[in-house]
Amino acid sequence: MADGATVVAPATSMLNHTASMVLTLSYFANIALQNASSNPNGSAIENRCYGMYGCFPNDMEWTSARRPIALHPQSPSDIDTRFAVFNDRNRVYPLILNETFLDVEVNDLRSGGLSTTWINPNGTIYFITHGFLESGKAKWIERMMNLLLNRDRTATVIVIDWGNGSNPPYNQACANIRLVGAITAHVLEKLMKVLELPNLDRIHLIGHSLGSHLSGYAGYELYKLFALRLGRITGLDPAELAFTETHERVRLDPSDAQFVDIVHSDATPFVPHIGLGLYEPIGHVDFYPNGGSKQPGCQHDFWKQETDARFVSNMFHFFSCSHSRAYEYFIESLESGRSPPVQTVPCTNYQRYLHGECYDCAALPHGCIRFGLDSVHDYRRLQRHRHQQPTAIQLFFRTARRAPFLMPNYRLTVQLSNSTASVHHGPEMGRIVLQLITADGLRSVELYFNDHEIMFEPGSRYSRVVTVLRSGEAGARHESYDVARTDTVAASWEYETSLLNPLSWRLIATPRVYLESLTIQPVTGGDGPGALKLCPTFNTPINTIGPTVLREEKRIIMAEVSNATGFLLQTMLFMVQHELNNSLIHLIHNGTLSSESNRTTGELSMPEDTRCYGVYGCFPITYPWIDEKRPVAYHPWSPAQVDVRYPVFTKPNTTHPPFIDIDNPASVRKLGIRPEGRIYFITHGYIESGDRPWIQQMVDAFLEDDPEKTATCIVIDWRKASNPPYTQTCANIRLIGAITAHVINMLYEELNIDVDRVHLLGHSLGSHLCGYAGYYLQKDFGLQVGRITGLDPAEPLFSDTDPLVRLDRSDAKFVDVIHSDGSEWVSKGGLGMYQPIGHVDFYPNGGYNQPGCNDPMTKYIRKHDDSFFWGFQEFFGCNHLRCHQFLTDSVRHRCPFVGIGCESYAAFRRGECFDCDRDGHYCIEFGLKARDSYRRLIEHGIITDPAAPLSVYMFTGPDSPYCRSHYRVLLRVSDEEESLIHGGEIGKMSLEVHGEGGLRSGRMEFSADPVYFEPGRNYTAIMAGADVGAAPLKVLLSWAYRTNPLNPLTWRLLASPRVYVQELVMQLLEQRLSVRFCPLNGAPVMADADNEFRREYCAPAST
C-alpha cells in the first residue's frame, strides 16, 4: 500500500471511456481476434482459475452469437484492483485497499482503525466503479463521492479502481470485470466480518457502463459463495456491446441485489447507431430519461462548435455525451437543495408518455417513483401497499438540454374548438408555439407544443409532455419556470407551405387554428390545484401574424369566414383556373353533418332519400352511401348532364372512332365490333377525359398485342361529369356505371358477344365506376363480365366502406387490382386504396412511393409538351398514375412481368416469399395474363382456396420499360481463419449479373444503407434488375468502402478494407432457378473494384 496515495485527485481526468472506446473499436476488431486465435486449440481451454476467486469458464453462456469471442480474465496482479476508502473527514487522501487486505486477520484490521477511523458500520457504504478505459480518478466519480458524503455525513464511499484491467481490447475488459466482481465480493464479505454487519442491506454499488455489470457479478458471487444478498445496485447506462440479449448470468440482473435500478441514457443499438448502453429493462426499476437515448443537448455538429476545445475533444464529447448523461443525471439528483425531487412516471413506452397518456400518479397502476437515491423507498412503499411483488417498472421523464438537467415535467393539453368558425376553416398542419408569462413579467422560454408538424383537427384534443424553463440571457445558467405563477400564455402558430404537401396549401384563408383551451398540469397530478386552464378571448384564432393571448377567463364565440381549400390534387388545380369549391376535408371534419342533414341532390338543403332515372334505376343516399366514412352523399346528375360517350376503337380504326348510340341499339352492328373477340372498356378518373394520352397508348397496346387481331377497345368518356366537387363526381359514377351495364347488355343482345371476354379497366374513380357497371349488369340482366382491372382505385370516400359502395371481387368473375399510391390520404396525400379488394391485388414496390416519382417537375412539364397544368398534375399524381403506365408497359414489352404472393411487403423485401407456388406464395403474371395465370394455379390444385384474397408484390424500375427480374441473393461471409482475423467491415455492396448474348442485369444495390458484414454471417437481399435469361454466367461484385470520421467501425489504420465473401447463392424468381457463384481461390472482395464470381469457381457442394 502506497502512503498518501490518491485515488480521486483534482487533476485533469482521463478521457471518458465511451469517447475513448471509439478509438479502440478497430483495435478490438483485429487484436481481439488475434488474441482468440493465439491459442491453437481455440476453445479447448474452457476454464481458468484464480485461487479463492474461483474458476472462469468461457463456454456456454459466455460465448454466444452476441459474444462471439470470449476471453479469460487477466490475473489479479495484472488487473491490480484497488479500493479507495473515503469518508467525510478524508476526501482527498483515501485509504487504499488492495488484494493483500484479504490476507490480513480480522482482529488486526479492527485494531488498525478500519471500523473506527475509516468505515462507519452504522452508515451506508457506497461502492462506485467506472467502465471501459477509465480509472477511479475520473472527475465524475469525485463529484459523486463528494455529493454522497454531503448528503449523509455518516456514509462511506469506496471507489473500485480497476483501471489496469479496463484497457483494450474491449472483450478482454469484459472478461476482467468477472474477476473484479469476484474480488469485490470477497472484499465485501471480509468487511462484513470486520465491521460486524448483520447483513448487507446498507451496501449500495453504483457502476457506470461496464461497471454496472461488474457490480452485478459482485452481487452474484456474494450470493453464490456466501449466501449474502446485496442491498442495492444502481446501473448507470449498462454497457450494451456483448451484453444485450445475453444470459442473465452474463449481465446485471434483478437477482443480483435486493433492489436494482437502472438509468438508460444511450440505449440505441451499437450497430449501426453506436449506442453504448442497453435498452432492455434489466432491473426492478428502469429509468428512461428522454426515452433512454439521444439525450437533448448532445451535439451532432461537434465540428462546428465555437469553443477553445480541439476537434478531437469535441468528437469524443459527441460519442460519449448520451452515455455519460446517466451519471450526470444521477449526480444532479444528489445535489442539496433540490426540492422537490424529480418524479418519474411509469408507462408502456416513451411515445405514450410524450403524448401525455401516462400521468397522475394516483391513477397509475404503479404510482410514480422518485429518481435517484429515493427510488428504493418508493419501490418498497409499492410493495407494502400492493401486498405483492411489483413487476419490473419502466419509468420515463424529460430533461433540459444542459445543466441543471432535472426539471419538473408538465402535461400540456390543447383542446381545439368545434365552433362554426373552426369547423368551417378546417384542419391545419403546423406547430403551436407557447410562452408562459407571470403577472410580474417573468417569461418562460418558447415551448414547441409539437416538435414536428402535425395536423390539428377541429374539436380534437392533443397532449404533450414538456419541461418549462425560465427565459434568461444567453449562456446564463437556466432555471425552472414556476408554472403555478402563470398569468397569461402567448400562443402563436408556425406554418410552412410545401409544394409537396397539398394539405399545406392556402389560396385565400390565413393559416390558423382555433383553440378552445390550454390546460397545464404536472404529470404527477390530475386536475387538482396544480392544473391551470387558459382560454383565448373572443374565440381569437392562433395564426402566423402575431401571438394570441390566453387567459383564465370565459371566451366569447364569434363567427369567422370559412376556409375553402380543394380536396384532391386535381381539384386544387381546377380551382386555380375555375371557381372555388368547399373542401371535402371541411365537410368530413364538420361534426354537425349527419345522414339526416345531408341527403341532397347537390344542395345541402333538400332532404331527399332517393332519385330515379328511368331504366337506369333509383339511387338512394341512405346507408351505405352515407356513413362515417362518407359523411356527405349527393345524388347523381341526370343522364343528360353526365353526357357519357363511348368511342369504339378497332384495329382498322384507331384515329377516328365511331361512337355508340345508346338510343339506337341496332347501330352497334355497324361499328366494326368483332363479337368473337375480346372487348375492353377503358375509363378515366376524376378531372380527366377519354382522350388522355395514356388511354390512347393503352388502346394501341391492346389492339397491337391481340394475337387474333379481333379485339375492340371502347372508352367510357365521362369528362363532363368528372369535374369538382369531388363528392358530386363520386355520385355521378354510380349512374355512369348503370349506363355502362346497359351498353354491355346491348352488345350482348345485338351482337351475341361472349360476356366472359369483356374486360373493364378503370383508373382511380374509374375503378369503382367499373365495379358499379359489373354490379348493375348482374342485378338488372343476370350477366357477369369476365374481368375488371382496378387501376389504383380512389381512396377518399371508398376505403373501408361497404362492398356495394366500391369495387369488389363480386363485380366480375375475376377482379385484379393494381395499387400504386396506397398511402393514407389525410396524412400522406395518397390517392389510391391500399385495402385488398380483388381476387388478386398487385402491390408494385409495396403499393406506394414508386421509383422515379421524385424527379423534378420540369421533366413532367416537358413530357406534356410544356403544359404546366398536365405536367403539374403528373408531378403530384406520379404514384397514382404509375398503375396504368405499368399495365401498358407490360403489354408492350416481352419482359416477364411477374409478382409473388406474400404476407406483407416487408416479408417480401426480406426474401421470405421467393419460392414460387410453395407455402402459399403463388407466382402470378402481371397485366393481361394475370387471369390465365390465376386460373392455371386453381386448375392444378396449387391454389386450394380461391375465396382467399391474394396480395402480390413485385419491384419495378423508375422508367419504361418498368419490368424487372427479381433476384434473391444470399451473400455468405467466410468464417475461415483469415476472415475472422480481419474482422467485419461496414460498407455497401452492389452487383451486376451477366448472361449469355451480352445480357446484363445492370448495377443492383445490395442494400440502400451501409451494412456491417461480419465473418461467419449470411446476408440476404432482394434486388431487381434486367432479365439475363436462364443461364447467368458470372456476377461482378463491387464493394464501396468509405472512411467516415463519425463511424469508428470504418477506420482502418493498417489493414486494407475487404470482405471475405465465400459465395453468392442467387435465385431467379422468373426463371425459377438457383445458382451458386464463388470467387477464384477464395479471394476477398476488395474495395472500389469489380470482383468476379463464377459458377465454375465453386467447389462441389458437400452432401
TrEMBL record:
Principal localization reads secreted
Q: Which SUPFAM superfamilies match?
A: alpha/beta-Hydrolases (SSF53474)
Pfam families named among the record's database cross-references:
Lipase
Domain Lipase residues, every copy: 48-405, 612-932
**GO annotation (BP), single:** lipid catabolic process
Cellular compartment(s): Secreted
Q: Which UniProt keywords apply?
A: Disulfide bond, Secreted
Look up keyword Zinc and say if it applies. Answer: no
Q: Which domain of life is it from?
A: Eukaryota
GO-annotated molecular function: triacylglycerol lipase activity
A GO cellular component annotation here is:
extracellular space
Annotated family:
Belongs to the AB hydrolase superfamily. Lipase family.
Q: Which PANTHER family match?
A: LD47264P, LIPASE
Name the record gives this protein: Lipase domain-containing protein
Natural source organism: Anopheles albimanus (New world malaria mosquito)
Q: What is the lineage of its organism?
A: Eukaryota, Metazoa, Ecdysozoa, Arthropoda, Hexapoda
